[in-house]
Amino acid sequence: MNFLRNINKTKTNTETMDRIYLEKKSGKNIYETICILEKISQKINNQIKEDLYTKLEEFNLVNKNNLEEIFENKEQIELSKLYEKFPKPTSISIHYLLDGKIKI
């Protein structure tokens, strides 16, 4: 599952969640829910890292040809800033659980 498609709909700020509501949405107790969400968060984090590394690798290929010139690439900086603004993987996994996009 590609978790990065609807990443913009997830809030970037932290909210307090009702424990009972999470349990009802997942059908499990809170400890099992947290463990499952943690595994999903790790998958999301790995996808974000892979995506970022593949995009940054394109800049490395371009810069390898010009070894004499080392300069700051504005596009690379903007890409890094974009990824810094992404919501946390735990927020994304909770958002998917609440929206019913994942079943536990």
The number of distinct β-strands equals: 0
Cα-to-Cα separation, first versus last residue: 14 Å
The H/E string reads: HHHH
Multimeric status of the protein: single chain
Large-scale geometry: elongated
Tell me about this structure.
It is a single chain. The chain is mainly alpha-helical and 104 residues long. The chain has one domain. Helix content is 62%, strand content 0%. The chain is elongated, with a radius of gyration of 18 Å. The model has no long low-confidence stretch (mean pLDDT 81).
In short:
The protein is mostly helical and 104 residues long. The protein has helices at residues 19-26, 30-64, 74-84, 89-99. α2 crosses α4 (89-99).
Helices, strands, pairings?
Blueprint lengths: L18 H8 L3 H35 L9 H11 L4 H11 L5
Helix pairs in contact: 2-3, 2-4
